[in-house]
Design brief:
The chain is mostly helical and about 60 residues long. The chain has 2 helices and no strands.
């Protein structure tokens, strides 16, 4: 039983940490100007695009 309780506690702690990170990120974004926010969005979209290209490359390699 003790092992499961520890696992549940670790899961709960991770959830709380994740929720705290989400709140902090939200506050950070809310404090930005519109211009800063747009730049942040564009940077994030660029990262997503790069990850998509990586996946496409991986798929291409494995299909050949």
């Amino acid at each position: 039983m003790f092992v499961f309780e520890r696992m549940k506690e670790k899961i709960r702690q991770r959830q709380e940490e994740r929720e705290q990170q989400i709140r902090e990120e939200k506050n950070r974004l809310l404090s930005m100007s519109e211009k800063e926010l747009l730049v942040e969005i564009l940077q994030e979209l660029k990262c997503i695009e790069d990850r998509i290209k990586d996946v496409e490359t991986s798929i291409s390699i494995y299909n050949n």
